[in-house]
């Protein structure tokens, strides 16, 4: 009888440990790494760039920012040197975003602009005019 009680205890303990391990692995599988976020943002092919513009909706005027970004990427200098496949504006205070970009990229300024090639973030800046500087570097 004592042996059966210990056997039940061992089985129950093993089951609890197994369930705990499964729960931990499920939680680990749900977390998103910075590499996963970057992978979802990169340009689709070599030689192209994706631009992400992060703004807070408080200190940055969206209309003025949009106008400035369009002027920058449509400038002759940028058009000649950069193939832009995508420009996305992201409100960091929008809780419905797929990722917590503010935390992932440690965004402290609005706007913050990320330029990505087909593999990684190639530059990060607070000033849209820095895209001109980046594009000049591509021609060298």
Notes on the protein architecture:
There is one protein chain. The protein has 140 residues and is an alpha+beta fold. The protein has helices spanning 2-30, 34-41, 62-73, 76-81, 101-104, 130-138; strands at 48-55, 83-91, 112-116, 121-125. A 4-stranded mixed sheet has the order 2-1-3-4. A hairpin with a 4-residue loop joins strand 3 and strand 4. The longest helix is centred in the first third of the chain and has 29 residues, at 2-30. The radius of gyration is 24 Å and the shape is globular.
Strand content: 15-25%
User: Order of strands side by side in the largest beta sheet?
Assistant: 2-1-3-4
Radius of gyration: 24 Å
The total beta strand count reads 4
Helix count, per DSSP? Answer: 6
Main beta sheet, described?
4 strands, mixed
Query: What is the N-to-C order of secondary-structure elements (H for helix, E for strand)?
Result: HHEHHEHEEH
Mean pLDDT: 85
User: What structural class do helix, strand and pairing data support?
Assistant: alpha+beta
The proportion of residues forming helix, as a percent range, comes to 40-55%
- Name the poorly predicted regions: none
> Ends: how far apart?
83 Å
Tell me, briefly, the overall form: globular
